[in-house]
Specification:
Length: 535
């Protein structure tokens, strides 16, 4: 009787929880959708084509800008940079900074890598699917990033390398076809893509709350659209939107970056909802400003939230190809991808520690020389004013002509440009230089501006290719000066897109043989070779 009583009591206790357990199973089944096989063949296709397009834009930027920026006669020459790295690291320099340009840092090599990457990325965009092709793209772009210096010191460079490295393991080695019927995408890599976008969003969300009180006060968008690096035409309208829209925009930002990413690891329906929200969020950012290819790139791992069944309603019929339903990843593929997952889990430890560091979180940092696992973030602080450097030339010291750059604000009457996903790197760095000039009244980190002044005084053809409207078409000017202004978006009743007021002069009028200019170049490690050649 006692044993029976104990058994009966246990059964009654177990039965007490059965309705709750059944209810939980019902909710989970509804969230996960009908029981069916959800493949990722189309998901892989869309991810690779999208990534190929981003690579194409990145390499196209290098084709047109890399030589003027880091070429033999560029603003920050590769050869000089590699010499300093070798002096600093000695025999380990090649390991600390892996790049093909150790072999040959010439302009021809810079163009060969850029053009080769552009051609291969276009092939991937058009359908080439092969692990070796994705690996070569990764090596070529890493080679550029590692010698890009200040021009490539942005978080999206590491993000492209990390995304590109994961994409290598999505592809087969034995076929080039866009739809390899017998080579299913490894599910492990799909999950690693989700882990990547999770870190991107969570890192960006936390750095905002920890970095600038305006994000918690919901006021950051009051100035963000005006003070971001390169505003777009829509930025003017968004800046003048009602305050309630700005508050709502910040709330949506917090929701998209801090709440939605957790759903990527849940059942199917919440995961798809997360993917839709994250892609829509990136689309909004694309319209609101020219953040290079950052937001386009972030969409790529977001696509890992979608499966074939979801995507088939949006992709062309030609993409709905038949596949072998019995195909499974080979033993070698399974072992390789699980080894990759283990390595990324290990390398994620410092990244997670950084995310959890309330006081010292940093953004956009690589923890290994190959940029395999990185920490990300954006706009940990938002400017309240917009400084701009205006570079002017003159032949007589009285009449001055301004150099207009492709996208950075200059002429207050000129409409802001829409250039995303392309990236005018000099325009971006001039924004950073203006921030430093406003805060420190000098140029230390952005001392390359001095070399830019010398190049303009020389009328250097490569440098002038980075200028939208060179005011001196034949002979270079005798004098160059750099003035600091504060810009703000014009109100609706004011003429033009911008209004501005002068703050001061950053660089007084200098000529090519100015001894103070030569001394400043030497002080910052540039020497005066360019000035000497001009003289």
């Amino acid at each position: 009787m006692t044993g029976s009583g104990i058994t009966g009591s246990g059964m009654t206790g177990s039965g007490r929880f059965e309705p709750m357990r059944d209810w939980g199973h019902t909710v989970w089944r509804w969230l996960d959708g009908p029981p069916r096989a959800h493949g990722y063949w189309r998901t892989r296709f869309v991810i690779l084509r999208s990534l190929g397009a981003v690579y194409a834009v990145a390499f196209a930027t290098a084709v047109f800008q890399l030589v003027p920026l880091v070429g033999e006669h560029g603003l920050l020459p590769v050869s000089t940079f590699l010499e300093r790295v070798e002096d600093l690291h000695g025999p380990s320099a090649y390991r600390e900074l892996p790049t093909l340009f150790w072999i040959d840092p010439s302009d021809s090599m810079l163009m060969a890598v850029s053009l080769g990457g552009l051609a291969l990325s276009i092939a991937v965009t058009l359908g080439l699917t092969h692990a070796a092709a994705m690996f070569v793209l990764w090596v070529l772009y890493m080679s550029i990033v590692h010698v890009g210096q200040r021009w490539y010191a942005f978080g999206w460079e590491s993000q492209l390398l990390e995304t590109g490295f994961l994409a290598v393991f999505l592809c087969p080695l034995t076929t080039l076809r866009p739809f390899p019927r017998t080579h299913p995408p490894p599910i492990v890599v799909i999950w690693l893509m989700r882990w990547l976008v999770f870190r991107i969003m969570i890192g960006a969300g936390l750095i905002k709350l920890r970095g600038d009180p305006c994000w918690a006060a919901l006021t950051c968008l009051d100035t963000f659209f005006e003070t971001q690096p390169i505003p777009s035409p829509a930025s003017w309208f968004l800046h003048h939107a009602p305050a309630w829209m700005h508050r709502g925009g910040v709330l949506f930002n917090h929701f998209a970056e801090l709440v939605v990413p957790w759903l990527l690891f849940g059942p199917r329906r919440p995961r798809i909802f997360a993917g839709v929200v994250l892609v829509a969020f990136q689309g909004m950012l694309i319209l609101s400003g020219n953040l290079s290819f950052l937001n386009w790139l972030t969409i790529v791992p977001c696509l890992a939230a979608f499966d074939d069944e979801f995507l088939q309603r949006f992709v062309p019929r030609a993409w709905r190809t038949q596949r072998d339903p019995e195909a499974k990843p080979t033993w070698a593929v399974r072992m390789t991808t699980w080894a990759l997952a283990a390595a990324i889990a290990w390398m994620s430890i410092p990244v997670v520690k950084n995310i959890l560091d309330v006081e010292g979180q940093v953004m956009n940092r690589s923890f290994d020389p190959l940029h395999l696992v990185n920490t990300y973030g954006a706009f940990g602080s938002v400017g309240r004013t917009r400084p701009e450097l205006i570079i002017e030339g003159s032949n007589d010291g009285n009449h001055w002509e301004a150099y207009e750059f492709p996208c950075k604000p200059g002429d207050p009457e000129r409409r802001p440009c829409l250039i995303t996903p392309y990236h005018y790197r000099l325009d971006w760095l001039l924004w950073f230089a203006a921030l430093e000039a406003e805060r420190r009244h000098s140029l230390e980190r952005e001392a390359w501006v001095l070399r830019l002044v010398v190049k303009l005084l020389q009328g250097d053809p490569g440098t002038l290719r980075l200028v939208a409207q060179p005011p001196f078409s034949r002979d270079p000017p005798v004098w160059i000066r750099v003035r600091l202004f504060q810009y703000r978006f014009a109100d609706a009743e004011e003429d033009g897109w911008w209004t501005r007021r002068e703050v001061g002069t950053l660089i007084r009028p200098v000529s090519i043989d100015d001894p103070d200019l030569a001394a400043a170049l030497r002080r910052h490690g540039f020497g005066q070779a360019e000035a000497a050649r001009a003289r």
